[in-house]
Structure formats: structure tokens, C-alpha cells
Amino acid sequence: SGDLAGAARLHHELLPLHQVMFVESNPIPVKTALALMGQMTDEMRLPLCPMSESGKAKLIEVLRQQGLL
């Protein structure tokens, strides 16, 4: 609709979430986020592995900031 200011605002609001989704190999952060939100189990099939504790802590922080947890 040409609302560049609104698009820029949304981009900046969502940027931390987009960035944390790539702290580890995709789709591990996405699956972990969905599990934390109660949308699926935290089970990973090979070759995927559970998210590292440091990555998971970053993910939880951002999900809380975004109001998703």
C-alpha cells in the first residue's frame, strides 16, 4: 500500500526475532520456538539436534520481548 514508514516500523520490531532464528542451523530455532510456545514437541529427528543452551537462552529472551512467551 506504499506505507514505507509502517513497513520500516514492522521490520525493526521483528528484526530481533528474525536474527535469533538463525543463531543455529535452520530449522532448529524455529522448531525450538514452536515447542516453547506449546505448538509442538521439542523432539528433533536426525540430522537435527537440540538447540544449544546459549542459543536457547537468546531465543527465549527474544520470544519474551516479542510477547510470544
Question: Can you walk through the features of this model?
Answer:
The protein is mainly α and 69 residues long. It has one domain (4-65). The chain contains three helices and no strands. The chain is elongated, with a radius of gyration of 14 Å. The mean pLDDT is 95.
Tags for this model:
69 residues; mainly alpha; 3 helices; elongated
Q: How big is the Rg?
A: 14 Å
Q: What's the mean pLDDT score?
A: 95
How would you describe the shape? elongated
Q: From N to C, what is the helix and strand string?
A: HHH
- Number of domain modules: 1
For the largest beta-sheet, the strand count, sense and barrel status come to: none
Our estimate of the beta-strand percent is under 5%
How would you classify the helix and strand content by structural class? mainly alpha
* Poorly predicted regions: none
